[in-house]
Design a protein that fits this description.
Largest sheet: 7 strands, mixed
Number of domains: 3
CATH topology of the largest domain: Neuraminidase
CATH superfamily of the largest domain: TolB, C-terminal domain
Helix content: 10-25%
Radius of gyration: 27 Å
Length: 581
């Protein structure tokens, strides 16, 4: 490792460089390939230089090389004239794959052997063959170089319109964008790269198909983005010249949300001047900024009223000694055992859902609220063989229920239908189960806490999946892993805001987990920061709406704490507190 961090001669390989120096120099130079490909190519032989096109393949992020070994042999007949070929090899952990659209997907972190072939030329050693994985178009970035030259950002795309969905909702798509460039102080290249990311769309992203872009296909950036003060000038051409006024406003909304976002890195601009074919566009304030999670809403919980379960409600402002209000009595729930509850955040369709065990599966009871509310409806989840572990409403009043390794979708006044999720089903094979499912405020993203078995070992992880609705059918797309590095035996999850989850671990700690899988403002793979230590007792469940955290314990107590409070407050007896949503 010490050989890796030492300074190397500049500006590039010379006859005095050892084969090991050349490999290390190449790895360093590869970090700037997005802006200066020639810096890395100078370490390659002319033949390999002509074949190497790293922009066409994902980037492999590895740990810093250790135990570099140089092995020499002669190529061809054993004569004094045979060219000398060296192999330089090292062991490193394969940490992640960075897609060409900037998604950072964690790998298993197993040790891999990386072998470079080098040829001795008149000017010194040059690399003649790159290691696998990756082949001729491989690009390896060490973890430390990755941290130096990539910035965590969000691109914003619109939620795909649906009959019941609020229009113009922007959804963040977390990416890593290349940062290092000759004019990075002005953030010009970074902003230009982000705008180009919007123009390319979401091919290959886990959100692809669940979101759409306002930019017409064929729109192009005429020149680099110029940032003056806090204003970014974006010059578009191509198909954008024929866009309708509403489309122009939506393009401006995507641009402003992306360039002004400061959730994971400092914002690049606070205003956007949009030009199309060199003409300034007059735009009303851009629309579509992400909706905040509902705050100041009552919290439901399961109340023990003797020998049967009921559902009670805490007020929006939770204080010690507060008296809960009964929401549903055991008689209303037909004296059934309650396994999960949820309340709709849609003010147009208020209601409470209760999951009860049927002995062979799960049934959901729906209780509409408000003037003229209909009688409650009970639906058995078709095909369910275990009790429900989680209920969650989306912002459009649709209910999502998880039981075992399955998910069901219930639209207002319609029977439940199983959710299609082949990729997630493959993850949950051999007895895996969904411990919790929580819908994001945008109604597009689902966060799932899943438990899987690996031989005799049981593991828990947090996944994100995109929702796709069509003609009454629902599907969850390819899940991506949210980094909870260093955390084991996770117990519960809740959306803290659009960009973070609150995660409860078995050690009683509650963690702030950014949805950018590499982590926000932290080293990729580092444990997420701690919100708070949990309350006294054994914490089992967690809910929050961004202002207050509420926890249920194994001792049958509900505790609450706001971000500004000095300690937890014991609120009432009960279990499974849940915020609307």
């Amino acid at each position: 490792m010490q050989a890796y961090v030492q300074e190397l001669p500049a500006p590039g390989p010379t006859s005095k460089w050892s084969a090991t120096d050349v490999v290390l120099g190449f790895l360093h130079a590869s970090a700037s390939y997005a802006f200066d490909l020639a810096a890395a190519k100078q370490f390659l032989t002319p033949q390999l230089r002509a074949q190497w096109h790293p922009g066409q393949e994902p980037v492999a992020v590895i740990s810093g090389p250790s135990s570099l070994t140089q092995l020499s042999y002669r190529q061809g007949p054993i004569t004094g004239q045979a060219p000398v070929v060296d192999k330089v090899q090292f062991t490193g952990q394969y940490l992640a794959t960075l897609s060409q659209t900037g998604q950072y997907q964690y790998a298993s972190g197993v040790n891999s052997l990386y072998v470079f072939d080098l040829e001795q030329t008149k000017s010194g050693w040059l690399i003649d063959k790159l290691p696998s994985p990756g082949g001729v178009d491989s690009l390896l970035l060490t973890e430390s170089d990755f941290e130096d030259v990539y910035a965590p950002r969000n691109l914003f795309f619109f939620a795909r319109p649906a009959a019941s969905q609020t229009p113009n909702v922007l959804v963040p798509d977390p990416v890593y964008a290349p940062l290092l460039s000759s004019n990075s102080a002005l953030n010009t290249d970074l902003a230009t790269g982000l705008v180009n990311g919007l123009l390319k769309g979401q091919g290959g992203s886990w959100l692809s198909g669940a979101t759409v872009s306002a930019f017409p296909r064929g729109t192009r950036l005429l020149k680099k983005v110029i940032i003056t003060g806090k204003t970014a000038r974006v010059d578009l051409g191509g198909a954008a010249a024929h866009a309708q006024p509403i489309t122009v406003e939506e393009m401006a909304g995507q641009l402003l949300a992306t360039l002004s976002d400061g959730e994971y890195s400092p914002p690049l601009a606070s205003e956007v001047e949009l030009y199309i074919d060199n003409r300034p566009e007059s735009i009303i304030p851009p629309i579509g900024l992400p909706p905040p999670a509902p705050t100041g809403l009552p919290v439901l919980f399961v109340s023990d009223t003797g020998n049967a379960d009921g559902v009670s409600q805490l007020p929006a402002i939770i204080k010690p000694g507060v008296k809960p209000q009964s929401k549903l009595s055991p008689a209303q729930i037909q004296d059934a055992a309650v396994t999960a509850v949820a309340e709709s955040p849609d003010v147009g369709r208020p209601g409470v859902a209760v999951a009860v065990s049927t002995g062979t599966g799960c049934a959901v009871q729906l209780y509409p609220e408000g003037p003229g509310a209909a009688k409650p409806s009970t639906y058995a989840l078709p095909g369910s063989t275990t009790q429900c572990t989680s209920l969650s409403y989306d912002a459009n009043g649709n209910l999502w229920a998880a039981a075992g390794s399955g998910v069901w979708f219930i639209q207002p006044n319609k029977a439940p239908v199983p959710v299609t999720m082949p990729a997630l089903a493959a993850t949950l094979h051999d007895g895996g189960q969904i411990v919790a499912l929580r819908m994001a405020p945008d109604a597009v993203r689902a966060a799932l806490l899943v438990k899987t078995s690996n031989g005799s070992k049981t593991e828990t992880e947090v996944l994100l999946a995109a929702v796709r609705l069509r003609s009454g059918h629902a599907a969850l797309g390819q899940p991506v892993t949210v980094s909870t590095a260093g955390l084991t035996d996770l117990q519960a999850i809740s959306w803290y805001d659009e960009f973070h989850l609150a995660v409860l671990a078995a050690n009683g700690q509650i963690y702030d987990v950014p949805l950018l899988t590499g982590g926000a403002g932290q080293q990729p793979g580092a444990p997420p920061p701690v919100f708070f230590a949990g309350p006294p007792g054994t914490a089992l469940t967690l809910t929050t709406e961004g202002t207050e955290l509420v926890v249920g314990t194994a001792q049958g107590l509900v505790w609450a704490r706001s971000a500004s409070a000095l300690a937890w407050s014991q609120v009432t007896n009960g279990a499974d507190p849940i915020s609307p949503g």
